[in-house]
């Protein structure tokens, strides 16, 4: 009896995980995000950026399997906000800078042609990372323009 229960539980968990992975892949494309979320202008801006071949979640998701769950839970919240008309523009996007660093150090095999971090006389990326400075201090609009929905008088405002 216990073996059947354990086997049933294992099969259920594996099945749920497979279903999650399929749903994750199906809902992780930029154009899927733009259908329900108020990010259409950001997707258009992304299409002409240096990162146009990189998906949203490559930057906006923490690394690992738990990062996938985190991103999709956040996504469900955005969908709920969208349908209830309770969203704000601009919403606060999460940038996982470990993804930036990992990709630009060459750790992401999915993007073999990525420009690798270099130290130059003008900027020492090693020191910048060591000092825990944000990539966004210099590269804020690398993936797409930001604050697209803000009016000109609010563009310089800090939140």
Structure description:
- This protein has 159 residues and is mostly helical.
- The protein folds into two domains: 10-94, no CATH class; 96-141, no CATH class.
- Helix content is 52%, strand content 0%.
- It has eight helices and no strands.
- The protein has helices at residues 2-26, 30-36, 40-46, 56-59, 64-84, 97-104, 125-130, 136-139.
- The model has no long low-confidence stretch (mean pLDDT 85).
List keywords for this structure.
single chain, globular, 159 residues
How would a textbook summarize the main sheet?
A: none
Number of helices: 8
- Structural domains: how many: 2
Q: How many strands?
A: 0
Structural class: mainly alpha
Weakly predicted, low-confidence segments: none
Residue fraction in strands? under 5%
Q: What does the average pLDDT come to?
A: 85
Q: Roughly what percent helix?
A: 40-55%
Shape: globular
In short:
It is built from 8 helices and no strands.
Q: Could you outline the blueprint of secondary structure elements for this entry?
A:
Layout lengths: L1 H25 L3 H7 L3 H7 L9 H4 L4 H21 L12 H8 L20 H6 L5 H4 L20
